[in-house]
Design brief:
Length: 94
């Protein structure tokens, strides 16, 4: 027989790296560049204002280029997930 202890379950909270994320041009209308420290590898996500994932792209050597030329004007959220933590930034598309 296996007895399980009841109690709170916790997950490791990733470090917030928002201050290391640079997105430009912002506002943008075509190619947008995403930069973090050059040693960072990870995944870039872009979500619309309803939370729908529109883009999933690699962050290589702290850099990613994303074409937002087909996006409707509005506010989008960029999320970058790395082994070092998570960064979030708003993107305005014109």
């Amino acid at each position: 027989m296996v007895k399980l202890k009841r109690g709170p379950v916790s997950a490791r909270n990733p470090a917030r790296l928002d201050n290391l994320l640079q997105v430009y041009p912002n506002p943008g209308s075509g190619q947008v560049q995403i930069h973090m420290p050059e040693t960072f590898q990870g995944i870039v996500f872009i979500y619309d204002n309803s939370g729908k994932k529109l883009v999933q792209n690699r962050l290589d050597n702290g850099h990613a280029d994303i074409d937002v030329g087909s996006f409707s004007p509005g506010l989008y959220i960029i999320q970058v997930i790395t082994v070092n933590g998570v960064a979030v930034e708003k993107l305005i598309v014109r």
